[in-house]
Amino acid sequence: MNIAVYRASLSALAIAAASPAFAQANPDLATTDEAGDTIVVTASRSGEGIRIDQLGSSVTVLDAKTIENRQTRVLSDVLRDVPGVAVSRLGAIGGQTQLRIRGTEGNHVLTLIDGIEVSDPFNGEYDFGTLIASPAARIEVLRGQQSSLYGSDAIGGVVHYITLTGAEAPGISARAEGGSFETFSGDVRVAGVAGDLDYAVSGAYLHTGGSPTARFGTRDIGSDNVGVSGKLIWSPSESFKLTGVARYGYTDAEFNNSEFDGTSPLYGTIVDSPGAYYTSQSFHGLLRAEFTALDGRWTNALTGQVTDTVRKSYSAFGRDGGSEGRRYKGSFESSLRFGTDTVVHRLTAAVDVEREEFRNTTPSPFVFQGKRDTDNIGFVGQYELLAGDAFAVGASVRHDENDRFDDATTFRIQSSYKLPTGTRIRGAYGTGVKNPGYYELYGYSDGVFIGNPDLRPEKSKGWEAGIEQTIGDNQATIGVTYFDNKLKGEIYTTYPAPDFIATPANRTTTSKQRGVEVFASARPIPQIELDLAYTWLKARENGAVEVRRPKHVASFNATIFSNDERFSTTLTLRYNGRQTDVAFLDPIFFAPTTVSLKEYVLVNLNANYKLTDAISVFARVENLANEDYEEVFSYRTQGRAAYGGVRVSF
């Protein structure tokens, strides 16, 4: 179910109506093996990861070079280039941003940062508009049901943002840039290795004066984002390693509400709302102790993590909404690797313990402000077989016991086979589960959004089959994947008579999503790099098209380098097909109406030049064609914008 930022307004209800665990991954595992092949951390609970060409599930890895070449400042922008992904942002930078994978809901995507689950425990999903992207990071997007590894939430897939260690990206770097809409951003990073200690500390800031987000408005919607993070890895011996991760984020962003004056011709659309803004403050921490024995073949890890989020919203008359959410997690993982040099078996067992605490802090006599909590324990088993470079198969199963919902068991099987011709055939089948969140169970405020404590968890199952072909000496790779998913018990927003007040319920019908993902990447010569992604999606609920799920999404990136690679320029084209959304245009019965959002094409162009080995200058133009479009009904987006800056690194 799509959960809005906390607005006691029509805009909040429009967002809520637009949509019908534990996570632990090794935060300090090397991202390539000795041969230089990409290792996917998120696809295994073994602590060792798996090579990307041995995985049956669909996965996309965006490395630090890709993030830097595309001059990504907000994480959600570069995720638009991933097959199967659709992004919806409320207007300008700083607006609430949702990500959907393969037609699932925004809260069906599990989001990790350095192994920490970062979704807001109160509303059950992560706001991708609050994360400033760093070039010293990599992103893994694992698609398909992954609840057998991570429990609730991982129905559509997993997005894992991994900051680089001091050994992977040592040195001191700083960036400053400015440009359109009174925008300024900067970051600084210090990283390296000192004896047994690997360290990486960074900070980032993004400010924008913004632009109008109401169709006929003039109020600029600005925002400020601050992010500070640190990762320390202490390795006093080859058999013991201690990892600590801490991350703090703060967002202060303006927003507009819907017009709820029934006599206004703009009723149900976004209008200027002077004085309306929200703040979001979050802290995420992780401590992981890892022990190895039997020459590294037996690995045991004990991990604890915490997430703490505080959100507040304000109107011209003062604070009118808020929430607090905390998540405490602990896990133990034990993995044994055995076999020969060519055939490797891995057995992994894990236990995950989790408590989530919630509190609605909206200042209203119609809101329960006491604390509620849920407890969950999950048991995981995983087997992986790696037979040389050609064949791999894996299976995982998880059993969750929750103090509020029925026990749930999920599983996944996947396999990959590579022919001598460079052709790889792969496939996977799995099940997933999503527990109702606090907002859905207990509501927001009487008379605005009433909770439903009788909600059942959503359950999903699906399969995928794909084929990939490598051309030449890894000069190009193309791939096609077909997927087919079914979701039962989907949670949606209903408006029962006679009061027509919003409340969630489980559907009795089945939601179906199927589609095709295509990708191609090539570097025909050292001076040119090309990437293409395309998704065709058919998402239906009882025959009706599901909202904010475009049928066609495509992207193309072309980067040209000079011979010495001191200069580079990247052209980005992003196409988003026609899609539907929900609007509330009836002031009498407050009935939702399906509306159509037109297709659009965004063109971005950037360039980077190294003046010296330590100093680089860069510039970019976003929305070069000044496209006028909406990703959410009646929310205007930014027009053409230009930025420039300098980066220094030692």
From TrEMBL:
Membrane topology: Multi-pass membrane protein
Organism for this UniProt entry: Sphingopyxis macrogoltabida (Sphingomonas macrogoltabidus)
Signal peptide: 1-23
This protein's record includes keyword Translocase: no
Keyword Membrane: yes
Record GO cellular component, one term: cell outer membrane
InterPro entries found in the cross-reference section: Beta-barrel_TonB, Beta-barrel_TonB_sf, Plug_dom, Plug_dom_sf, TonB-dep_rcpt-like, TonB_box_CS
Segments carrying motif TonB box: 38-44
Main location: membrane
Sorted UniProt keywords: Cell outer membrane, Ion transport, Membrane, Receptor, Signal, TonB box, Transmembrane, Transmembrane beta strand, Transport
Domain named TonB-dependent receptor plug: residues: 54-158
Protein name: TonB-dependent receptor
Pfam families to which the protein is assigned, alphabetical: Plug, TonB_dep_Rec_b-barrel
An example Gene Ontology biological process: cobalamin transport
Domain TonB-dependent receptor-like beta-barrel: 197-624
Family statement: Belongs to the TonB-dependent receptor family.
Cell compartments where the protein resides: Cell outer membrane
